[in-house]
User: Fold this.
Amino acid sequence: MTEDFNSPGYDIPPEMEGQVAITTLDKVYNWSRRNSIWPMMFGLACCGIEMICAATSRFDFSRFGMEVMRPSPRQSDLMIVSGTVTKKMIPQIVRLYNQMPEPKYVLAMGACASGGGPFKEGYSVVDGVDKFIPVDVYVPGCPPTPQALLHGLITLQKKIDIQSIKNVRWYSKDPVEAIPIPVLGPDLMDPREYELIKDYTAEKQVEEEEVPVAEEA
Ligand code: SF4
Assistant:
């Protein structure tokens, strides 16, 4: 245990140092979670290769307790969105996110996951996964290096360090609603925008009806 683990203002007698700690429940809770973050094992595009590199011996994110990449969302704490998020893929990503148990975190790795990257405004690409699921950490780059990903993971650890059992969302009395799965049709539809889309369509219909139809020759 590090010195940080002890709460300041409590002197531990020298003969008991390393054996006794005076700390808070939040610190114990966060310390155990931050050092055992299990990422979900999936990659979407070229950034996925850099994520794989971060797990190999040269960079080795097992040093941070993150080596247990899980093939099931039920056992994962962290979704690393590593690559281009296409409109065809986002329903699956949201479904996987919903299937992860709390506490759960999302890291957007690279320009594509963060904002569409080089494909922004392309016909088939979502311009940022945060349009659909909440993102905790963004890692810039195209692709980000394994070192950049490690920095993002350490940033996530720092975020966990300052969370408190008193106000984290997974212990909130109000249940957290699952995110509606986007619908892929001719284009992508976010069910949360359904009312907006309905109003817009109705307005357009009225506008079109007001335009006089050209008489047939
Ligand atoms: S950010 Fe660059 S490297 Fe990463 S998936 Fe997009 S195009 Fe590929």
User: Anything to note?
Assistant: The chain has a mean pLDDT of 90. Residues 26 and 164 are 6 Å apart (CA to CA).
